[in-house]
Every structure is written in C-alpha cells, then in structure tokens.
What does this fold into?
Amino acid sequence: MEAKRRWFHNPCQTTERDRRNQRRIIAWSLLWMVSWTAGALAIGREWLAAEAAGVVAAALSAGLGIATLLAYRRFLREADELRRKIEIEALALAFGVGIVGGMTYWLLGKSGIVAEAEIIDVLLLMILAHPVGILIGYRRYS
It folds into this structure.
C-alpha cells in the first residue's frame, strides 16, 4: 500500500552544516527580537530618560539585526541550489506582500477607510509571508 504523501515535505537534503547555519540564524534572530522589544518598551514607557540611551538601544538592535542578516546570507551561500531557490522565492513573496500590501494599506489609511498604517504593520505582514513562502516552495518542489 502506498504511503500517504504528507502536506509538508522538505525536498532539500539537510546537512549538518545547514542545521548549524539554521541554529545560528535562530540564535541571532532571538537576540535581535529581544533587543528590539526591550528597546521599544523602554522608549515607549519612557524608561530611557536620555536621548543617548535611545540611540544606544537602537544601535544595539541594528547591530544584532545586521548579524542576523549576515547569518542568513551565510546560510544562503552554503545551501544547496533547491533550498536557495525556495528561500529566494519566499523572500520575493515577502517583499511583494510588503510593497503591495503596505502601499494599499497606506492608501486606505489616507482615505480614512482604515486606521493610519504604521510601518510595523507592514513588517509583520512580511515576516509572516516568508515562512508561508517556504512552505509553498517545499510543497511545490517535493
């Protein structure tokens, strides 16, 4: 009897190097997320009295964000061709969702149909679209 095909099947071979690179991305992403959240809370609740402290919080968050991007770039460089193709298609989807969704939401906000758009709304759409794109890619190429 033929085994049922799972909806999600990773068609890429996962090597130890890929797993190590993915762990790096996750670690840097978590550090970045914690620093950004702490900075946003500290600024929003006025825990940081001096402007210099806000600049330091933003610089720390930016530095960890850059480290995350560098870890992701390393992952892409060392990944096999299929995994790289899936990732690039997922990035294209996330970028498209951000541009089209963000500009549409901005127009709706300016017309008064929805609340004024904030950049974080668009970023969240992009962040959510990327893993959806990866799942679609795995499904397409499995």
About this structure: Residues 24 and 71 are 6 Å apart (CA to CA).
